[in-house]
Design goal:
Helices cover 71% and strands 9% of the residues. By secondary structure, it is mainly alpha-helical. It has a single domain, classed as Rhopdopsin 7-helix transmembrane proteins (Up-down Bundle). A hairpin with a 2-residue loop joins strand 3 and strand 4.
Length: 318
């Protein structure tokens, strides 16, 4: 029951975030709009299916133990739809990590883990549909469920660690490049420091929270093989992935300081940035050259207030 409640609550948060994304980034890249749209459709379908199950179990089947033990449509709502959503979001992060770090190895590892856990989730859903009850599900579908949960947890941990490391390095590199100009205006410099800290904290918190729930799901599944405690975090996983994705997308919103009359919130999706060439010395002693994305931190005047913003190259390649 807690899993259903958390799922509904997270769906409400997702609806708000999708609405903000729609009005704030209507000119966003077509691929990202398609991604957000597909995820929202899947999540809406999942919520409808789970609402059906709640009614069949706790209303129509009130007092019926067989109804409580039946998987109903959970096999489709949680493993299959949730696994597809998680897989899509994790592959999106793999691409972003590759763009900002140029590390093919990490991106490939994340992509393979995402595909593995997504495939295992679909297999788990098919087995759950065939078995039809929770009592026998964990005993007869242990392998697919273990691969699904372990793969998802491992993938989320790698994503959280990689995003925290590479994104914080990218932002601080840009911050140091532009710090001389920003330091001329102490208020702007202070505001920029706060903005940089806020972005890094957002990335770390969202990634760590999703990874923690995935690990908790795996631990409960292994520790309590004859109980369904793990279904509570399992019901949340898909919605958590979709919400964290929208949180990152909507972080591009520009919020001006309220020092003068004017709109309290303005939506901007057009930025500038630079792609700089950096030279270093390789292990063979030869000079090497590679590209590094440096988001431009700049000050703008909006409605009489100062706004410090991060450039598009960070966000669009993030």
């Amino acid at each position: 029951l807690l899993g259903y409640l958390f799922n509904w609550g997270l769906y409400g948060a997702l609806v708000v975030q999708v609405y903000i994304y729609h009005i704030g980034f209507s000119n966003d890249r077509a691929a990202w709009k398609v991604l957000v749209g597909c995820i929202f459709v899947f999540e809406t379908a999942q919520t409808i299916l789970m609402t059906h199950d709640v009614f069949k179990t706790f209303a129509e089947g009130y007092g019926n133990l067989a109804a409580l033990n039946s998987t109903q449509l959970v096999w489709l709502a949680v493993p299959i739809l949730g696994g597809i959503v998680s897989c899509c979001v994790q592959i999106f992060y793999a691409y972003r990590i590759y763009v900002i770090s140029s590390s093919k190895v990490i991106a490939i590892v994340i992509t393979l883990l995402a595909l593995m856990q997504g495939s295992a989730a679909i297999a788990q859903g098919v087995e759950a549909a065939i078995i039809g009850n929770f009592t026998d599900l964990q005993a007869r579908a242990t392998m697919s469920c273990s691969v699904w949960l372990a793969g998802s947890a491992a993938c989320d941990v790698i994503i959280a660690a990689s995003m925290s490391y590479f994104v914080s390095g990218s932002i601080f590199a840009s911050f140091l490049v532009h710090s001389a100009d920003l330091s001329k205006n102490k208020s702007t410099f202070s505001h920029t420091q706060a903005l940089v800290t806020q972005i890094i904290r957002l990335i770390i918190e969202t990634g760590t929270f999703t990874a923690t729930i995935a690990i908790l799901d795996l631990v409960l599944f292994i520790a309590f093989p004859r109980n369904d405690y793990h279904t509570t975090p399992a019901f949340m996983l898909g919605k958590l992935h979709s919400n964290t994705l929208l949180v990152i997308f909507n972080s591009r919103l520009s919020v001006p300081s309220v020092r003068s009359p004017g709109p309290s919130l303005q939506f901007r999706s057009h930025y500038t940035a630079s792609r700089e060439q950096v030279r270093d010395i390789g292990e063979d002693g030869r000079q090497q050259k590679h590209a590094v994305f440096l988001p431009q931190i700049r000050q703008e005047s909006m409605s009489g207030g100062n706004t410090v913003r991060i450039g598009k190259e960070f966000w669009s390649n993030f």
